[in-house]
Amino acid sequence: GAGVSQSPSNKVTEKGKDVELRCDPISGHTALYWYRQRLGQGLEFLIYFQGNSAPDKSGLPSDRFSAERTGESVSTLTIQRTQQEDSAVYLCASSLIAAAHDTQYFGPGTRLTVL
Amino acid sequence: RKEVEQDPGPFNVPEGATVAFNCTYSNSASQSFFWYRQDCRKEPKLLMSVYSSGNEDGRFTAQLNRASQYISLLIRDSKLSDSATYLCVVNKGDSSYKLIFGSGTRLLVRP
Predict the structure, then answer these.
(1) Cβ of A106 under 8 Å from any chain B Cβ?
(2) What is the pLDDT of residue B58?
(3) For site-directed labelling of A5, which of A26, A48, A70, B82 has its Cα 20 to 30 A away?
(4) Do B46 and A104 touch (CB under 8 A)?
(5) What are the helix (H) ranges across chain B?
(6) How far apart are the first and last CA of chain B?
(7) Which phi and psi angles does B63 have, rounded to 5°?
């Protein structure tokens, strides 16, 4: 079946512009996660959704970052007034439920470059 | 101290070799452990979960040592296609969905 999809696959933007990154999770998966991966580094947790609610936003680096999820499906991560340090691959994952043992399936990521 | 630490490598081995990676984690309350594989410029994919009793999946064997808080991955009879970065992943607490990823160990298998 269809996996997690993300768009765009690549985004180049100028410093100070806003960007929106989209994630379509696997159908029926109630939990959705956003991560960031800087070049040569591990994944950093950003935010997690259970249904349309975000009980854990602890990983968002600043108030320039926000995310929403609608219809217990698609999620959008918005970065306002982008900075060069925001350049990274943004990965979305989904799982059937939000549980420690439940496998998270990742999308291909959006590679963001801020000039 | 990082929550999950791995040797970044690279480990450069010939085809057919056996190679082992270790990983240490800092949170003694962690209960779920995984190895993910990440190919260059691709997303991470689950390789295997790691169980207390140790588990094997074909050429891959994972072991957990709770007392020392380390996890290992053994790859036997390495193939060229095993070349990738292997990520050690641990959940943050005893029931937490939040996964903490190591920075990965890079493996290069040469002909």
Answers:
(1) yes
(2) 96
(3) B82
(4) yes
(5) none
(6) 37
(7) -135, 150
C-alpha to C-alpha distance for A91 and A45, rounded to whole angstroms: 10
Q: For testing the chain B interface, which of A4, A23, A101, A111 should be mutated: the one with the most B CBs within 10 Å?
A: A101
Residue B52 predicted with pLDDT over 90 = no
The answer to whether residues B51 and B99 touch, using CB atoms and an 8 Å cutoff, is: no
Query: How far B18 CA sits from the closest chain A CA (Å)?
Result: 25
pLDDT tens for residues B14-42? 999 999 999 999 999 898 899 999 999 89
Amino acid code (one letter) for A60: L
Note whether A100 contacts B: Cβ–Cβ < 8 A. yes
Report the candidate in B29, B44, B9, B97 with the shortest Cα–Cα distance to residue A43. B44
Tokens for A7, please give them: 């768009």
- Record the tokens describing residue B3, joined without a space: 């929550």
Looking up tokens 């854990």 gives: A56
Asked if B91 and B98 touch (Cβ cutoff 8 Å), the reply is yes
Six token digits for residue A80: 């306002």
Question: Exposed e or buried b for every residue in A30-60, given b needs 16+ CB within 10 A?
Answer: bbbbbbbbeeeebbbbbbbbbeeebebeebb
